[in-house]
Structure formats: C-alpha cells, structure tokens
C-alpha cells in the first residue's frame, strides 16, 4: 500500500501456518503447550497468537470449537524456534488444545498485537498476574532479566490463583509471591492485596498486569489512586486476531479500539474500566 | 495482480476483469489493519481477486457495544454495528490506502434513507479508484420503517433513485431475512442493478449462560460460517434462476468445493467471509482448491461416494 511505516510490532507471516507440538507439560491445572515454529519470528513479550488444532477443530461437542483461540505467548526461549503457551481447560477450544501431545500439529497465526513497553525512566517493574493471565508476565520477566534490570534480580512477581490445583503455575516465573483465594498456598486473599502492599512502599514502580477482568480493574484503580503507571494485558473475545472482524473492541477514553490491533497491552490510563464485557467466554 | 499457478482463469464481473472468482464478503477483512499485522506480505499475497470494503455510512459510527461475538456450532454470530469513519473519513483516510491494493476495489455503502444512499453513490461515482459499489440494504429505512432489502418495492424505489447517479456497476447485497429473496432480486434487476450478492448474515441471538439476558451488546446478531452454507446454497440457486444479472454467492465457504457448489448453483463469483477469521490467507487457498476441483468430477459427488450412505 503506501510506503511502509516504521512498525510498532513484530509482524507475523501472512496466513495460518503449521507448528508441531514438541511437548505438553502439566503444571497443576495448567498445560504448557510447547511447539516448534520454524517459519515465524521471535515474538515480543505481550504479543499473542491465534491457535487451533490442525485436526479435530470442530466436530466436538456442539461442533465447537470453530474459531481459533487467542493466547499470549508464555515464553519463546532464545536460541530455539519454540513457542510456549499456557492453557487452562475451560471450554471446548482449550479442552481440545489440552488434549494435544508431542507430534500433533497446531495451526497458528502470529505474533499479533502490541506487547509490553519497557519501564519509564528509573521505574522498577512489578509484575502482577492472575490465573492463566500469568503467561505474558513470564516472557516479560525473562526479557527484563536479560536486559534492563540492574544486578539481574528478577522483578517481583505477585501471582494470584484460585487454589492449590492452580498455584503450581507460579513455578513458571522466578521468585513468585503467591496468593490463593482459598488460602491453601501463600497469602489467603487477592493478589491485588499483595500489590497494594508492595506499592505502598514504592512510589517508583511500574506495574505490568494480566489476569481476569475484575483483577485488572482492581489493579487499574489502585495504580490510578497512587499515580503509578500500569500496562495491562487485556482479554476480549476475538474471532480473527488481526483486525478483520471488529469483534474484540474495548472502550477507552478515545472510544472503542480493536484490542487485537491496538492491544492487547493497553496503558491503564487509557481505560475508564478494565472490566471488558464478554472476556473469558 | 497476484498470480497463483493453481488459480482458475480470469472472470468478468460487469466489465471488471478479476484474476479468479474468489473475493471477500463485506466487513470480514480490513487490509489496513492486516497490513499492520503482516506487513507487505499482505499486499504481495493479497488473497482476493477484488476487495469489498466494510460498509460506509454518511455519518461516522462507533458500532455496537461489546460483547460483539458469540461462537456457534459450526459458525459465528456477530453484532458489530457497522463501525466506520463515515463518508468524509473514508474518503480522506481509507480510500487512498485501499486504492493501492493490487485488485479492484468495490465499496459497500449503506444509508438510512434513499437520500443518504444517493449521497454515498454520488460521492463514489466520481472516484476512479472505485470499480463498483455494493448497496447494503439490510437496514431499516427510517422514513418507512421497512427493512429496505426485505421488500421488493422498497428495493425498486431505492434502485430507481440511485441508478441514474453513476455508470459504475451497482451490486445489491441481499438479506436472507426476507420472505421472498428472489422477488427482491428481480425488483433490483428490474431497476437496473448490475449484480446481486448473497447471503448476508441470518438474524439470531444468544442468551448469557448465567443471567439469561441477551449476550450480544446489540441484542441480536448475524449468523455466518459453515452452519449457514446449506441455506446460502439454496438461496443462491433460487436467485440465480430468477435473474439474468451476475450473482455473487457466499455463506459458509471454507473450501474450494463449497465455492464450486455455489458456482454450480449459478454464482459467477464466490465470497469468503468467516473462514478468513480462521486463516487470513483462506481466500487464496480456496481459489486454488476451486481451480483443482473445477477441472475434475463434481467433488460433492466424490464425497457422497466415499461416505457410502
């Protein structure tokens, strides 16, 4: 079309491509799907992929799943062609993905969207994740350790889970502090309580968060109260992932934006609320 | 033009030469956003033989509140609400970019009155970048309260008002939510429509699994995907039998054999919509498959034989 603008993202090869599953690892209630992506670039932290199984996608219960599902990349280990995704079996699409074994094939499109930006001058990154939303924080922690953080100390990772079946997900990040809803592991309560306590002693933090909408809304509100910048990786139901369907809009101070092309990482200050309707369906 | 060794030969649509018979359904592909995601590969491997734009209205529209999507058995229901920059915004921002695609541009327009449609048609009639116009008539006429595309007389009055305003081909996008779709198609043809396209999405709804309230922000939505393919095939066949102008068939096409079926039912061109959401390059794949199936025996016949009923 017109002369190529400087891109604000790592661009994806055009079209869905095959990627072989090399391992499916269980971490409590979660599955880490590792696949070999020979044809794609290494993604930026916070970018996502549209995934579906190459076989038996459709034809299951009620003939779902039909559409691909969006997943932030969990990890893309340097020096390999592997992409790791964190999957929790919550519906027909994730159930099918959790069935996959080494040797099975995925069809994927990505990397897509805009990921995390580095902390503003002098600010210390603090990671806050909830449930399966810890995924993009793992690759971001890897990158912060590899590059920006003095002394190589892992940025603090405050992670919330439902219960002891989900808490093993915390092992996917370094030095995680855990909260569980039922108190079976770590702090008995919400991860946002851990975050509030951390921010009370640190006015120079920058928060990176991903998790269920009520958690992200709490993160947004408590960061706004303290005048601390936050970058939120949001979720919204997506059909395509590349701006075609206009289905994944979220409301911002500038009106609706398509989360797949303008996000999924959004500055919290652009949102009146992080309670995105329909997320998690 | 993109060339594909397996693509079927050129097709003529109302004097517009297309490299193959597969285009996109309006509102299911945004080359400007796709170029941000995929870079120049999107232009170099553009998957469609023509590009049909999202619906343009006179005034800008933000679209419906989310949620806008609901996955169905073998398909998708959407309630997007025609977000667009409005006529002035489209002319200033979208048209210059879309005009540089390697394929002809068909602009889809919708008005809430005949005057609005006339204004849109007049504006695009002067633009050399635009090869043809598609009229979205799946909306109520605010003056009569009737869905324009559901009523043959409404469509005839609309066409007689706008046909004199341009020499460009005018394609009428038919709604399946009408009691007699061939009658609407004949009314369009009678007042000078150059072609008709169908099916648009079929109205449906879903309830929130916990609250029982409508799931979609727009209350009802449009159903698309493989689940509507049989309906599309029947409507395309009945419309193609009723009119002499070209028919653009669409609805649930995910493979070249489905495109082949629509052509067998009387379509000149086939449009791909929802399948592009699963794979942005689906249009090119389907065109290649169509070329291969077109050369051999009827593929659905093979399927029946294999299924050994």
What is this entry, summarized?
Chain A has 281 residues and is α/β, with parallel strands linked by helices. Chain A is built from five helices and 15 strands.
Report what the structure shows:
The complex is a heterodimer of chains A (281) and B (309). Chain A has helices at residues 92-99, 135-148, 191-200, 213-226, 259-262; strands spanning 17-27, 30-36, 48-53, 69-75, 82-88, 105-112, 124-130, 157-161, 176-180, 187-188, 205-210, 230-233, 249-252, 255-258, 265-267. With 281 residues, chain A is of the alpha/beta class. Chain A has a seven-stranded mixed β-sheet with strand order 10-9-8-7-11-12-15, with helices on both faces. In chain A, helix 4 links the parallel strand 11 and strand 12 (230-233). In chain A, helix 3 runs parallel beside helix 4. The mean pLDDT of chain A is 92. With 309 residues, chain B is of the alpha/beta class. Helices cover 35% and strands 17% of the residues of chain B. Chain B contains eleven helices and 14 strands. In chain B, the strands form three sheets. In chain B, strands 3-14-13-10-9-8-7-4 form an eight-stranded parallel β-sheet. In chain B, strands 5-6-12-11 form a four-stranded antiparallel β-sheet, with no helix packed on it. The radius of gyration of chain B is 19 Å and the shape is globular. In chain B, 56% of the residues are buried. Residues 1-5 and 299-309 of chain B have low confidence and may be disordered. At the A-B interface, strand 6, strand 13 and strand 14 of A face helix 1, helix 2, strand 5, strand 6 and helix 3 of B.
Task: Detail the topology: elements first, then pairings.
The complex is a heterodimer of chains A (about 280) and B (about 300).
Chain A: E1 17-27, E2 30-36, E3 48-53, E4 69-75, E5 82-88, H1 92-99, E6 105-112, E7 124-130, H2 135-148, E8 157-161, E9 176-180, E10 187-188, H3 191-200, E11 205-210, H4 213-226, E12 230-233, E13 249-252, E14 255-258, H5 259-262, E15 265-267
Parallel strand pairs in A: 7-8, 7-11, 8-9, 9-10, 11-12
Antiparallel strand pairs in A: 1-2, 1-6, 2-5, 3-4, 3-6, 4-5, 12-15, 13-14
Helix pairs in contact in A: 3-4
Chain B: E1 11-13, E2 16-18, E3 22-24, H1 31-38, H2 41-44, E4 51-52, E5 69-72, E6 75-78, H3 86-98, E7 105-109, H4 114-125, E8 130-136, H5 152-162, E9 170-173, H6 181-190, E10 195-198, E11 202-204, E12 221-224, H7 229-242, E13 247-250, H8 256-264, E14 269-272, H9 275-278, H10 282-295, H11 299-307
Parallel strand pairs in B: 3-14, 4-7, 7-8, 8-9, 9-10, 10-13, 13-14
Antiparallel strand pairs in B: 1-2, 5-6, 6-12, 11-12
Helix pairs in contact in B: 4-5, 5-6, 6-7, 8-10
């Amino acid at each position: 079309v017109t002369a190529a603008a400087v891109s604000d993202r790592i661009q994806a090869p055009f079209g869905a491509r095959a990627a072989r599953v090399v391992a499916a690892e269980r971490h409590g209630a979660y599955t880490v799907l590792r696949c070999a992506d020979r044809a794609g670039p290494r993604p930026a932290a916070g970018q996502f992929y549209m995934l579906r199984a190459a076989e038996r996608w459709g034809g299951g219960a009620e003939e779902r799943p039909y559409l691909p599902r969006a997943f932030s990349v969990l990890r893309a280990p340097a020096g390999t062609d592997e992409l790791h995704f964190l999957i929790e079996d919550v519906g027909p699409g994730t159930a099918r993905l959790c069935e996959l074994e080494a040797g099975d094939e995925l069809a994927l499109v990505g990397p897509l969207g805009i990921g995390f930006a580095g902390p503003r001058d002098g600010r210390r990154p603090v990671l806050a994740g909830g449930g399966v939303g810890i995924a993009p924080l793992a690759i971001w922690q890897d990158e912060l350790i590899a590059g920006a953080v003095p002394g190589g100390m892992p940025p603090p990772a405050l992670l919330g889970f439902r219960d002891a079946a989900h808490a093993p997900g915390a092992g996917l990040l370094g030095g995680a502090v855990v909260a569980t809803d039922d108190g079976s592991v770590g702090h008995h309560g919400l991860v946002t309580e851990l975050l509030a306590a951390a921010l009370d002693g640190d006015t120079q933090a920058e928060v990176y968060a991903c998790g269920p909408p009520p958690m992200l809304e709490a993160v947004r509100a408590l960061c706004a109260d303290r005048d601390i910048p936050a970058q939120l990786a949001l979720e919204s139901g997506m059909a395509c992932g590349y701006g075609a369907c206009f289905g994944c809009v979220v409301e911002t101070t500038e009106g609706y934006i398509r989360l797949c092309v303008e996000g999924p990482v959004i500055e919290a200050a652009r949102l009146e609320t992080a309670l995105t309707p329909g997320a998690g369906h | 033009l993109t060339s594909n060794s397996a693509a079927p030969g050129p097709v003529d649509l109302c004097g517009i030469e297309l490299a193959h018979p597969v285009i996109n359904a309006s509102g299911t592909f945004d080359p400007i956003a796709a170029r941000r995601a995929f870079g120049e590969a999107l232009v170099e491997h553009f998957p469609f033989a023509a590009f049909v734009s999202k619906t343009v209205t006179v005034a800008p529209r933000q679209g419906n509140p989310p949620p806008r999507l609901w996955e169905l058995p073998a398909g998708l229901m959407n309630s997007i609400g025609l977000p667009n920059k409005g006529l002035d915004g489209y002319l200033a921002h979208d048209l210059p970019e879309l005009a540089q695609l390697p394929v002809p541009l068909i602009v889809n327009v919708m008005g809430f009155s005949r005057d609005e449609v006339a204004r849109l048609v007049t504006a695009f009639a002067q633009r050399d970048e635009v090869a043809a116009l598609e009229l979205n008539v799946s909306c109520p006429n605010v003056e009569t309260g009737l869905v324009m595309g559901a009523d043959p007389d409404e469509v005839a009055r609309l066409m007689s008002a706008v046909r004199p305003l341009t020499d460009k081909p005018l394609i009428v996008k038919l709604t399946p939510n009408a009691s007699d779709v061939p009658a609407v198609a004949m009314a369009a043809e009678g007042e000078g429509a150059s072609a008709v396209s169908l099916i648009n999405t079929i109205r449906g709804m879903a309830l929130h699994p916990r609250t029982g309230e409508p799931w979609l922000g727009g209350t009802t939505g449009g159903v698309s995907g493989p689940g509507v393919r049989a309906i599309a095939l029947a409507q395309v066949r009945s419309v193609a039998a009723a009119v002499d102008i070209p028919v653009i068939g669409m609805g649930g096409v995910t493979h070249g054999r489905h495109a082949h079926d629509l052509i067998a039912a009387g379509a000149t061109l086939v449009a791909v919509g929802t399948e592009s959401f699963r794979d942005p390059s689906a249009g090119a794949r389907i065109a290649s498959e169509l070329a291969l199936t077109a050369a051999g025996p009827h593929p659905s016949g093979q399927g029946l034989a294999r299924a050994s009923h």
